Amino acid sequence: MNRRAWIVVAVTALTGACGSTVNVGRERTLLLETDKQWSEASNDVDKFVSYYSSDASLYPPGAPVVKGAAAIRDAYSKMSSAPGFSLKWTPTNATVSGAGDFGYTTGTYRMTMNDPSGSMIVDRGKYVSVWKKSANAQWKVAEDIFNSDAPPPAPEPKVAPPPEKPAAAGKSKAKPKKSPAKKRK
Questions:
Q1: Global confidence as pTM
Q2: Among 93, 161, 149, 89, which Cα is nearest to 125's?
Q3: Is residue 171 part of a domain?
Q4: What is the C-alpha to C-alpha distance for residues 68 and 52, in angstroms, rounded to an integer?
Q5: What is the span of the domain harbouring residue 91?
Q6: What CATH number should be reported for the domain holding residue 50?
């Protein structure tokens, strides 16, 4: 082979090796579809938790961060066992990194459960889930946060302590002052 052919082969090989391309549009579509499938698994604890990475973190409103798939399984299992529980969400956007290994989805959710009296509570809100590609190239949730669209509950009014009762007539709480003793000579 002549020298010019070798240069073309070398440049082509280097360009291919250095510039591996990711079809970001395809990954974005795949990520949105994965998030939709995850929503459909919300009534199966094991399947639901399988979408989290082993080191994932869940940030529920009004509660501490839940870290790790086992802790997330425990928290979700308790929540989903509440009477009347239902959770569905709709991803509305997905963004994927140029390398195709990180992404995030955003959307809205609807959750229901019964209050202590048995009445159904409906909560609507929004979420952000950060995803990363696992070693086997599957999308897994790394960070998951959601919050309600409902305003926070109004603070309970502070109750003033009852006023002191007036002293009974003729009786005083104050101790009478002693008159100074006269000195005797």
A1: 0.72
A2: 149
A3: no
A4: 9
A5: 21-148
A6: 3.10.450.50
Inside any domain, residue 184: no
Q: How many angstroms separate the CA atoms of 96 and 25, rounded?
A: 8
Domain count, the chain: 1
Q: Cα–Cα distance between 17 and 6 in angstroms, integer?
A: 16
Output the DSSP codes for 44-102. -HHHHHTTEEEEEEEE-TTS--EESHHHHHHHHHHHHTSTT-EEEEEEEEEEE-TTSSE
Residue 36 CA to residue 28 CA, distance in Å, equals: 12
On whether residue 97 sits in a domain, the answer given is: yes
Per-residue confidence of the chain (185 residues) as pLDDT tens digits?
565 544 544 444 444 445 568 999 999 999 999 999 999 999 999 999 999 999 999 999 989 999 999 999 999 999 999 999 999 999 999 999 999 999 999 999 999 999 999 999 999 999 999 999 999 999 999 999 999 999 988 888 887 777 787 766 655 555 556 655 555 55
Please choose, from the candidates 22, 51, 49, the residue with its C-alpha nearest in 3D space to the C-alpha of residue 134: 51
User: Does residue 36 belong to any structural domain of this protein?
Assistant: yes
